[in-house]
């Protein structure tokens, strides 16, 4: 139980002192964020990992985030993921081998254009390395528009992977909705070369299965039931959902709008359920609830970080034993670091 675990976690943290820092993504369950030294969105967590000087960075999040922390931190720092099963399905939708093959076809369809690949943070290190090698970079949901602008200053066309919704929403924000082509990696023959050549933004057909389940009907229902409600959604939601919302932004933006709300305001939260629950718990004077009830918007990957695993890795570190170390291969680490540095400099 939590009552058994908390003293064990505290004892391990006392033993480890400044040697450990715990980072928690906004979607982590309460029993993890309550022990985190820093809670944030994936951009803030990557900045925090870069600034941390603790020997151990224990990451409450998913594998791609822990990989990024390993890339960004110094070589003498060790990143630990309490459970190795915490893998974001969207990150698995763009495998580097598949992307290599697509890159050949897309560049062949438009040999006169300079194509810049951008990968969302939600991807593995080999894809980040590929993007750096081809002159591109990484972005998160809070700086995708800046990454697009960066790329269009250097080239004529963007290949954005893996999240088609974030890509489409960003293209709309930049007034480029007319120039989109979608690339289906499971049926590449379906794409005609003329359409690829004419488009300025090619979107890989990946998506988040948590955010894709929000619909415009969910928003319409909330507006009927709570006419004063404000709706904030994550840009991984479908276009129709973003269009129907009042505010769109990363989990940091979602947190900020509730922090800055006046007492008595109502906010429906269109993202993973745990963030809605934290905001409700942290802000008694604001009426906060999940956009689609409690039932469906739970990220399986994030939920793998069970507090029992956190207790285990911390006690083991305190006893001098390392488990679940996330270590990116050196050949990928350097290039992926270039792609991440380009993002951090945006
Ligand atoms: P943020 O970058 O907004 O924290 O989102 C990460 C994520 O996984 C969203 O599903
Ligand atoms: Fe991946 Fe979606 Fe979970 Fe975020 S919410 S970690 S994108 S599956």
Features:
single chain, 16 helices, four-stranded parallel β-sheet, 346 residues, Rossmann fold, globular, binds iron/sulfur cluster
Characterization of this structure:
The chain is of the alpha/beta class and 346 residues long. The chain folds into three domains: 2-88 and 302-336, 3-Layer(aba) Sandwich (Rossmann fold); 91-209, Rossmann fold (3-Layer(aba) Sandwich), CATH 3.40.50.10800; 211-298, NadA-like (Rossmann fold, 3-Layer(aba) Sandwich). The chain is 45% helix and 16% strand. The protein contains 16 helices and 13 strands. It has helices spanning 2-16, 30-33, 42-51, 63-72, 96-109, 125-133, 144-154, 164-173, 193-198, 216-225, 239-244, 251-259, 273-282, 300-303, 307-318, 330-344; strands at 20-25, 38-40, 56-60, 78-80, 115-120, 137-139, 157-161, 180-183, 201-204, 230-233, 247-248, 266-270, 287-290. The strands form three sheets. The protein has a five-stranded parallel beta sheet, with helices on both faces. Strand 1 (20-25), helix 2 (30-33) and strand 2 (38-40) form a beta-alpha-beta unit. Helix 4 crosses helix 16. Bound molecules: 1,3-dihydroxyacetonephosphate (13P) and iron/sulfur cluster (SF4). The site of iron/sulfur cluster has 12 residues, from helix 14.
Q: Predict the CATH topology of the largest domain.
A: Rossmann fold
CATH superfamily grouping of the largest domain: NadA-like
Tell me the quaternary state.
single chain
Strand content: 15-25%
Number of helices: 16
Low-confidence stretches: none
Question: What is the radius of gyration computed over CA atoms, rounded to a whole number of angstroms?
Answer: 20 Å
Strand order of the largest sheet: 6-5-7-9-8
Secondary-structure element pattern, one letter each: HEHEHEHEHEHEHEHEHEHEHEHEHEHHH
Helical content stands at: 40-55%
CATH class division of the largest domain: Alpha Beta
């Amino acid at each position: 139980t939590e009552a058994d675990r908390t003293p064990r976690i505290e004892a391990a943290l006392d033993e480890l002192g400044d040697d450990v820092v715990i980072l928690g993504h906004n979607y982590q369950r309460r029993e993890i964020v309550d022990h985190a030294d820093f809670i944030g969105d994936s951009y803030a967590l990557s900045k925090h990992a870069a600034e941390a000087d603790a020997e151990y960075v224990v990451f409450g999040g998913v594998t791609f985030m822990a990989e990024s922390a390993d890339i960004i931190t110094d070589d003498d720092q060790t990143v630990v993921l309490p459970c190795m099963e915490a893998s974001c399905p969207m990150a698995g939708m763009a495998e580097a081998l598949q992307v290599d093959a697509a890159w050949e076809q897309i560049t062949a369809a438009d040999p006169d254009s300079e194509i810049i690949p951008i990968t969302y943070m939600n991807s593995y290190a080999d894809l980040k390395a590929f993007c750096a090698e081809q002159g591109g970079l990484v972005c998160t949901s809070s700086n995708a528009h800046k990454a697009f602008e960066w790329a269009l200053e250097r080239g004529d066309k963007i290949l954005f992977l893996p999240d088609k919704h974030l890509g489409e929403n960003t293209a709309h924000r930049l007034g480029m909705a007319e120039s989109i082509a979608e690339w289906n990696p499971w049926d590449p023959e379906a794409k005609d070369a003329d359409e690829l050549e004419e488009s300025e933004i090619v979107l890989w057909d990946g998506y988040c299965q948590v955010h894709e389940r929000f619909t415009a009907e969910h928003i319409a229902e909330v507006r009927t039931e709570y006419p004063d409600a404000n709706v904030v959604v994550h840009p991984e939601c479908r276009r129709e959902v973003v269009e129907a919302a009042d505010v769109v932004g990363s989990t940091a933006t979602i947190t900020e709008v509730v922090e800055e709300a006046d007492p008595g305001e109502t906010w429906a939260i269109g993202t993973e359920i745990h963030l809605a629950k934290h905001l409700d718990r942290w802000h008694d004077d604001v009426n906060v609830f999940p956009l689609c009830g409690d039932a469906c918007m739970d990220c399986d990957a994030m939920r793998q970080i069970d507090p029992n695993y956190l207790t285990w890795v911390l006690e083991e570190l305190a006893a001098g034993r390392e488990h679940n170390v996330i270590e990116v291969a050196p050949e990928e680490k350097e290039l992926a670091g270039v792609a991440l540095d380009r993002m951090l400099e945006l």
